[in-house]
Design a protein that fits this description.
Blueprint: E1 6-11, E2 14-19, H1 30-45, E3 51-56, E4 61-63, H2 76-94, E5 100-104, E6 107-109, H3 111-118, E7 121-125, E8 129-131, H4 145-153, H5 155-164, E9 167-169, H6 170-176, E10 181-183, H7 186-200, H8 205-217, H9 224-237, H10 240-250
Helix pairs in contact: 1-2, 2-3, 2-9, 3-4, 4-5
The structure holds coenzyme A.
Length: 260
């Protein structure tokens, strides 16, 4: 399969998967998600590739979220499917038995923050910015963010970020444990990820797969949370406030929410 919205580059048994829609700040359109899924499945099945890095093209954004232009006309049932589709693809990343690190450059918002959180851990460049700004659109995170952000930084901080829609910088993300390391720029972050992965892939692959699986299993009791998230996302998508949030984004103005 040749890709349109992602680029892959294999070097020294490590594949770099780059989300590549720079003009739209690498927003995750449906096509992009399909390509990402394909790339992850191929990576999982190819015994010659030992580890992966997921990053965003250019320097301005890792991924600025799901592609908001595809939200138009989303009804409750489409919205539920939309959420579960993204959740399932991100679960493939989280549950992959080979290591996957996110290298976060620039904006990692909404689905972008959720994609980074689905990776096994994250390295940010100094200019990285994280947030779950869905409330500004009258919706909620729908690709696992309500679950993984809470797992990674704790309930109070997670709720504050999701309720305010605030955007935090790389140093704040480091303090909160959202990222493991901050590098000067994207190149340095990529080099740091590569060094760590080179170390990890010298270890026994079965042991690496097992620690990923065991660490993930800490949270398996909360699996229902993903179902609740998909339902809540679908409910939010049928409100007038969501229409208003969507229109305000397109018209580049501040939304006026009415609670309906
Ligand atoms: N979906 C679709 N398109 C997006 C997008 C998204 N999530 N984020 C950015 N874009 C597009 C913009 O519409 C714009 O396209 P245009 O040039 O055709 O108008 C282009 O990417 C550049 O974005 P712009 O808003 O002009 O850049 P900026 O530097 O002024 O602002 C952001 C950057 C990230 C603050 C702003 O783009 C933004 O708020 N994006 C949405 C973030 C979001 O809410 N994500 C969660 C979605 S659920």
């Amino acid at each position: 399969m040749s890709y349109k919205n992602i680029k892959t580059n294999l070097f020294d048994e490590i594949i770099v998967i780059e989300i590549s829609r720079e003009g739209k700040l690498n927003a995750l359109s449906g096509d992009t998600l399909d390509e990402l899924k394909e790339a992850i499945l191929r990576f999982s099945q190819n015994s010659e590739v030992k580890a992966a890095i997921i990053t965003g093209a250019g320097t301005k954004a890792f991924v600025a979220g799901a592609d908001i232009s595809e939200f138009q006309g989303l009804n409750e049932s489409d919205a539920y499917k939309f959420s579960v589709r993204g959740q399932d693809i991100f679960a493939l990343i989280e549950n992959c038995y080979k290591p996957i690190i996110a290298v976060v450059n620039g904006f990692a918002l909404g689905g972008g923050c959720e994609l980074a959180m689905a990776c096994h851990f994250r390295i940010a460049s100094e200019d990285a910015k994280f947030g779950q700004p869905e409330v500004n659109l009258g919706i909620i995170p729908g690709y696992g963010g309500t679950q993984r952000l809470t797992q990674l930084i704790g309930k109070g901080r997670s709720l504050e970020l999701m309720m305010t829609g605030d955007i935090i910088d790389a140093q704040q993300a480091l303090q909160m444990g959202l990222v493991n390391h901050v590098a000067k720029d994207k190149l340095e972050a990529l080099a740091k990820a590569r060094n760590l992965l080179q170390k990890i892939i010298t270890k026994a692959p079965i042991a690496i797969g097992a620690v990923i699986n065991c660490a993930n299993s800490v949270f398996k009791q909360n699996l229902d949370g993903y179902q609740i998230e998909a339902t809540a996302f679908a409910n939010a998508c049928k409100t007038k406030d969501f229409k208003e949030g969507f229109n305000a984004f397109i018209e580049k103005r501040t939304p006026k929410f009415i609670g309906k």
